[in-house]
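Appendix B, Record 12. Input sequence as logged:
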Amino acid sequence: MSNSQQKLTKQKSKPLKIKDKKSLLLGSVVATIIAATPFIYNLYSSVPDVKVWNTFLFTYESGWYESANVMAWTIMGKLIPIMLLIIWFFTNRHWWYHVLIVPIAMYIYQIIETFNDDVQFSEENNVLYLLPVMAIVIPSIYLIRAKMFNKINDANKTLEELEEEFKIGGKGFWGKFSDYF
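Logged structural output:
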C-alpha cells in the first residue's frame, strides 16, 4: 500500500469532529423542518370552524374572518413562506442574500395585520411600512454590486471569486444584524 493510500484510509477512519457533528445535526434539523412544511401547514385543520375558540391557554374571538379556522389557515399561509425565507436567508452564501430581508419583512407585516381585527383589508398599503427596510437593503445591495463590478474592472477575478470575497460566513443573527448598524 502506498503512502498516499495509507493517508486516505487514515482520514476515512477518523471520527467526525465536533463541528462536523454539529453541522450534520443542524443540517438534519433544517432538512426535517423543510420536509415537514406540508404537515406544519395542515395544522390549521385542527382548529375548529367556530367564531370563538376556547382552549386552556387562551380564548380567540375571530373578528374579521368570523372563523378561527379561516384565521389559522391565513396565518399558516404566511408562516410557512416566512419560515422558508428565514432558513434561506441564514443558509444562503451568495452576496445578494440580504435582499431576502424585504419579503421577510413583508410577511411579518402581513402576519401583524392579520392579527389586527380592526383592519378592513389586511394587505392595504403595506409598502409604506416596508420603505425603511427597503431604504437600507436596496442601497446596500447596490453598493455591494458596484464594488464587485469595480473589482472586476480592476482585476482579472471571476464572479465566483468575488462572491467568495464578499461572503460573510459563520455569523449568527446578531452578527448579521450588526453588519447593518
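The longest strand covers residues 52-54.
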